[in-house]
């Protein structure tokens, strides 16, 4: 419980006594007028209150710097309410101290998530809010961090800074603090979660676009201009922006890529990505005991990911990520051919062969570095002469192929390993123009019309 408390004014005026300068505080004669009323032009408002601390002891809390008596009263009333609900209002735990303790206790999250949380705390939350007492954290404090991010992005737009922070990243930065404060809320360290109350613009997922002939023509024209100026083709392709961050090949473009990559040692990997929509780390972590060529299935139980240049192996992103995926006959044939070539490579390597058990390896059996897989994919795109997509966009394309073939959304969700069907429907599907045209014709044909 807390005492009644009292409110008064104090200032920063000082006086020298016996050669030592000391602050007058609430004893400054300028704080009151001759009639005893408070001087509105001098000092700020402060409240003092006695609260119950640990083991029943009493502790005096003094908070100041308020512009008005009303503000000081409201702050004291809020503190009383927290004390009445069992919150340790006398705690000096700062936001920075709490976040460090919190991140140090997280033992049940993925390495990538831990790295993301730590990065957000290091770059945003600790530098801006670390000095504040956790119990004093307010929505306006959190909002100032996002205001600083907005200011940085404005500098980027003016060319005075680099690496703007996108809307999706802003949401993830907020999610880190919101998750940490949710734990503080459950522990009774705070009574509200300020991060959950801050309003931010919604981060729209980039819309997947198909590489139509018009889009390819416009993009290729820009590339040709740069090449004509002496820029190398690969660099020119990377320099020209695509219509969307997420681009999807048409079936004929995918066929061109696969035909061009058919002699590549990792052809089966590209084939598996394109038709079954695996994540990069899932394919790199796949081992032969999880491949059933007779039954036509693979089972995903691990992923191989690169974090800060260091490769780790871990379980899939979620429970839904652990799944068994059916394979079409063409994919089974590709994996059989790959298995045969891998056995030949093993014999050729002799004692130099590394027994990793992985389906996709280097020529001497070592597991693949996921980053090198991405680099190789971009090189093959250049060789094939197809418009650029990200390796992850093959996953979008696989979903679109399945839906165009009439596969149910539920089956697509389970094949991709999503935890909910909304993510599949909203993010990983792009409608091919010819499919959309056929759907429009089919809908129009349902309406009977009189002959004209």
UniProtKB/TrEMBL annotation:
Pfam families: Arm-DNA-bind_4, Phage_int_SAM_3, Phage_integrase
Protein name stated in the entry: Site-specific integrase
Domain Tyr recombinase: 244-441
All copies of domain Core-binding (CB), residue ranges: 93-185
Keyword DNA-binding: yes
InterPro entries registered for this protein in UniProt: AP2-like_int_N (IPR028259), CB (IPR044068), DNA_brk_join_enz (IPR011010), Integrase-like_cat_sf (IPR013762), Integrase_catalytic (IPR002104), Integrase_recombinase_N (IPR010998), Integrase_SAM-like_N (IPR004107), Tyrosine_recombinase_XerCD (IPR050090)
Keyword DNA-binding: yes
Organism: Pseudonocardia alaniniphila
PROSITE patterns: CB (PS51900), TYR_RECOMBINASE (PS51898)
Gene3D superfamilies: 1.10.150.130, Intergrase catalytic core (1.10.443.10)
Entry keyword set: DNA integration, DNA recombination, DNA-binding
């Amino acid at each position: 419980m807390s005492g009644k408390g009292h409110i008064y004014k104090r200032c920063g005026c000082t006086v020298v006594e016996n050669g030592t300068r000391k602050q007058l505080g609430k004893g400054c004669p300028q704080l009151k007028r001759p009639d005893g009323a408070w001087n509105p032009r001098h000092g700020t408002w402060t409240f003092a209150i006695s609260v119950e601390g640990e083991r029943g002891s009493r502790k005096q809390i003094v908070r100041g710097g308020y512009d008005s008596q009303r503000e000081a009263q409201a702050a004291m009333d809020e503190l009383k309410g927290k004390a009445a609900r069992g919150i340790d209002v006398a705690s000096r735990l700062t936001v920075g101290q709490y976040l460090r303790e919190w991140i140090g206790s997280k033992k049940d999250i993925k390495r990538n998530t831990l790295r993301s949380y730590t990065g957000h705390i290091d770059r945003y939350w600790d530098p801006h809010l670390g000095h504040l007492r956790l119990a004093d954290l307010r929505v306006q404090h959190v909002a100032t961090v996002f205001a600083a991010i907005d200011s940085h992005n404005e500098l980027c737009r003016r060319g005075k800074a680099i690496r703007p922070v996108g809307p999706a990243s802003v949401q993830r930065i907020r999610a880190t603090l919101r998750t940490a404060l949710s734990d503080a809320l459950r522990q009774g360290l705070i009574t509200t979660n300020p991060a959950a109350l801050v309003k931010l613009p919604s981060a729209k997922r980039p819309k997947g676009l198909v590489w139509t002939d018009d889009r390819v023509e416009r993009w290729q024209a820009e590339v040709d201009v740069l090449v004509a100026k002496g820029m190398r083709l690969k660099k020119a392709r990377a320099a020209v922006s695509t219509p969307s961050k997420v681009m999807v090949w048409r079936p004929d473009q995918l066929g061109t890529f696969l035909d061009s990559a058919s002699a590549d040692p990792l052809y089966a990997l590209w084939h598996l990505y394109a038709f079954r929509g695996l994540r990069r780390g899932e394919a790199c972590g796949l081992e032969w005991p999880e491949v059933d060529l007779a039954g036509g299935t693979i089972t995903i139980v691990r992923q191989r990911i690169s974090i800060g240049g260091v490769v780790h192996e871990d379980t899939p992103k979620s429970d839904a990520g652990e799944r068994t995926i059916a394979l079409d006959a063409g994919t089974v044939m590709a994996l059989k051919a790959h298995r045969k070539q891998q056995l030949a490579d093993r014999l050729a390597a002799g004692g130099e062969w590394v027994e990793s058990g992985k389906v996709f390896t280097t020529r001497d059996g070592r597991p693949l570095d996921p980053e090198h897989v991405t680099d190789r994919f971009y090189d093959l795109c250049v060789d094939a002469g197809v418009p650029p997509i990200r390796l992850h966009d093959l996953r979008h394309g696989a979903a679109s192929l399945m839906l165009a073939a009439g596969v149910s959304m539920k089956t697509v969700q389970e094949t991709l390993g999503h935890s909910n069907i909304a993510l599949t429907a909203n993010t990983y599907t792009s409608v091919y123009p010819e499919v959309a045209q056929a759907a429009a014709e089919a809908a129009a044909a349902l309406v009977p019309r009189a002959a004209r």
